[in-house]
Design a protein that fits this description.
about 270 residues, mainly alpha, 12 helices, 2 strands, about 0% strand
């Protein structure tokens, strides 16, 4: 029995040491092979290796946790994205350019706008900090506003046609909002921009977009914000009722100041 136990120890030890590279030349050659693979293939192979090897899985989980911690401790500013979109749609492809040429370049302009939206999506994962998430959402709102309010031109007519079917902006907003925890969602409902509740700014954008027949998915964003806001109001009412019971039924009127937002005047010299 002692011999068999000893054999098991030797087998386990061998299994552990086989994952440690001992030959520099072999490691260098393997590095060249890995460098020659595309990212999709590397991800597929890494997933397969992690599923088969607990030690590889542990390494993957540890690295993911390390990167998530870094992301959660930093705040990314996306304001340049909305400014870039404004410049693209009002200067780069418009100023001094004939309508026929604007029509020809409208596809390129739309691609640049969508690229900015996708970059925001890629740099704002679920484990990003709240500051990064709000900055991303606000920049997306501004991008949508630029598309709605940029000067009428042949370029903008074609770009708006693109966003009558492309839902990347709304999908990214939903992705960020749905990835928030309850504390973050409560904070987003309390955010104000220019003395107007941020959620009301989004609703205002949805109304503008509806006039152009674009960004249809913003209705889902508005609905998500409104539903959560109603739930918060219901919880507050329930807490007030409990307080009234504790105080013998005394009326503790809980007044709230509703946000009033009129039409926003946009300075088209900047987004």
């Amino acid at each position: 029995m002692a011999d068999r136990a000893s054999k098991r120890v030797r087998v386990d030890s061998t299994a552990q040491t086989t994952i440690v590279p001992t030959d520099p030349a072999r490691a260098a050659k393997l590095q060249q092979v890995v460098d020659g693979l595309n990212e999709k293939t590397v991800r597929r192979l890494l997933l397969a290796a992690a599923q088969k090897s607990p030690s590889v899985e542990a390494l993957v989980q540890a690295e993911h946790a390390r990167l998530a911690k870094i992301e959660s401790e930093k705040t990314i500013d996306f304001s340049q994205h909305s400014k870039s979109v404004w410049h693209t749609l009002n200067i780069t492809y418009v100023k001094g350019i004939k309508s026929s040429r604007q029509f020809e370049m409208s596809g390129d302009a739309s691609c640049e706008v969508i690229a900015k939206i996708n970059d925001i999506a890629n740099r704002c994962p679920q484990h990003a900090s709240y500051g990064t998430k709000f900055n991303a959402l606000e920049s997306l709102r501004k991008i949508g506003k630029v598309v709605c309010m940029s000067d009428s031109s042949e370029l903008m007519r074609e770009v708006r046609k693109e966003f009558s079917s492309d839902g990347s902006l709304e999908d990214t907003m939903l992705q960020i909002l749905e990835g928030m925890n309850q504390e973050e969602f409560d904070r987003i409902l309390d955010e104000y921009v220019d003395d107007v509740a941020w959620k009301d700014k989004v609703e205002e954008l949805a109304d503008m977009a509806a006039d152009w027949g674009i960004f249809d998915g913003l209705n889902a964003v508005v609905e998500l914000l409104s539903n959560n806001d109603d739930q918060d109001d219901g919880q507050d009412d329930g807490q007030d009722d409990d307080q009234d019971d504790d105080d013998g039924g005394d009326d503790q009127g809980n007044g709230t100041n509703a946000s009033q937002s009129g039409p926003e005047i946009i300075d088209m010299t900047s987004p």
